[in-house]
Amino acid sequence: MSGLLFAVGVLVVVATGASVLFTMVLPRRPAGFERVSLWVNRAVRVLFVALTRLARSYEAKDAILAPVGPVALVAQLLFWAAAFIVGYGLMLVPTTHDVAEGLQQALGSFFTVGAIHPGGTEYLPVDVAAGATWAVVVALQIAYLPALYSAFSQREGLVAMLEGRAGVPAWGPELLARHQLVGIIDTLPELYSAWEEWSADVAESHTTYPVLLLFRSPEPWYSWLLALLAVLDGAAMHLALSPATASSNARLCLRMGFTALDRIGTMLGWRLDPDPLPEAPVDLTYAEFEQAVQMLEGVGFPMERTAEEAWPDFHGWRVNYETVAYRLADRLVVPPAPWSGSRRHVGPNIVEPRRPPHRRPARSADASVPRTVLRGRRPAPSTTGPPEATPGPPDATPGPDARPGPDATPGPPEATPGPEATSGPGSGRLPDPGSA
Questions:
Q1: For residues 341 and 322, what is the distance between their CA atoms, to the nearest angstrom?
Q2: Sequence-separated (6 or more) residues with CB below 8 Å from residue 338
Q3: What does the angle CA 297 – CA 198 – CA 316 come to, to the nearest 5 degrees?
Q4: pTM recorded for the entire structure
Q5: How many beta carbons lie within 10 A of that of residue 32, not counting itself?
Q6: pLDDT tens, 128-151?
């Protein structure tokens, strides 16, 4: 019997050690027994989601969910410690002849690096191995944290930058509308390229370190998932409405974006269709799409197709990412933004992005305009007509006492701004996003 318990203890220690290595050292998607860390993350998430029922507003729910990521890391570390103690405790049964005493001795050796043997007769090899194991796990965890926070910071950078481009919470049609309102549609190809690279980084980091899914954005209404969904919807609408002028970068962004979502969903154990048909159903309705197209028409977004003509192409793009995006949005309890699906733990109200109002500094009609006064010799005034400027020699230099008199020729005429002079190509100021 003691030999069997010893063998079971060895298996527990080996399996736990493999889980530690595959989670914190080997960069790959967890599979098999490596998914133990996912079970711990799920248990912590379910506990905190249950606590959100005590809150009414979304901000309060987000405040409750904010520490889920750090708590999951601590819970994961405690789970490994408990598993190692059980494993080493079973390995000590042949010398202690009692499971309880073996666990007590393993507990003391584990946290004292083998210096204390409170159970029974010491078994030096197992005691030292237990103490060394805990020291190695703690060292790996310390080295693991910088990698996590580096990936987190890299993820949140573009999310924060999207606030001025797509609103808060982010929404795809608003992304296109704001770029049209401020005249920066030419920057959309660069935006698509940046989010293609961002999607590749997130696909790698969030499948290698699944606990990153539990780390929420610093602001309640920010969400990396909503930001990605907004960019994908914006790119899909751009390609569907203006196929001839839309940048090819939009296609690359879409492809990498829904590939990243599929990889994350597969890592979580979801069964997903890797190649859905373009005619497959989607939750977003044509009426919602048509309303968004009308909004874009109102701001003057260039279109080559009507909403009816563009819908099949948009539908064909969205079918690739809508299902997994909606499941992730519900799982992570992200803000209730338009076109992001329903939430079980958030109210049914949808919060649309608020566009900032259009403002300009007031300018009075008689405001003086700075003018240039030319210093130099002036011609003698004429009594028979307007003064005629007689240029002097090219090298004439005005004397130190030369001052423009009352009849000096003034500079440019004072310009009184008319109603059309407050904005436009020559005003040097682009209209704010609210100047629709």
A1: 9
A2: 171, 288, 350, 352
A3: 45
A4: 0.77
A5: 10
A6: 888 889 889 989 989 889 989 999
Per-residue buried b or exposed e for 381-390, using 16+ beta carbons within 10 Å of the residue's own CB? eeeeeeeeee
Radius of gyration of the chain from its Cα atoms, rounded to whole angstroms: 34
- CA-wise closest residue to 170 among 240, 239, 217: 217
Residues in the chain where the model's pLDDT stays below 70: 27, 30-34, 113-122, 358, 360, 362-436
pLDDT given at position 401 = 43
Using N-to-C axis directions, what is the helix angle for 224-241 and 188-208, rounded to 10°?
140
Looking up tokens 């590939």 gives 259
CB-neighbour burial class of residue 19 (10 A; exposed 0-12, middle 13-18, buried 19+) = buried
Q: What are phi and psi of 87, to 5 degrees?
A: -60, -50
| 224 contacts 202 by C-beta, under 8 angstroms | yes
User: Could you identify the residue written with the tokens 């005003």?
Assistant: 427
Cα dihedral sign, 76-268-332-153: positive
Single out the residue of 198, 314, 335 nearest to residue 261, CA to CA. Answer: 198
Distance CA 327, CA 233 (A): 17
Q: Report long-range pairs for 65-70 (Cβ below 8 Å, ≥24 apart).
A: 65/216, 65/333, 66/216, 68/44, 68/214, 68/215, 68/216, 69/211, 69/212, 69/214, 69/215, 69/216
* Domain boundaries of the chain, sorted by first residue: 2-145, 162-332
What pLDDT does 407 receive? 42
Let me know: does 433 contact 402? Beta carbons within 8 Å.
Answer: no
CA distances from 376 to 144, 153, 312, 392 (A): 74, 61, 72, 10
> CA–CA distance from 285 to each of 56, 65, 226, 311, 314 (Å)?
29, 31, 19, 10, 11
d(CA 102, CA 91): 8
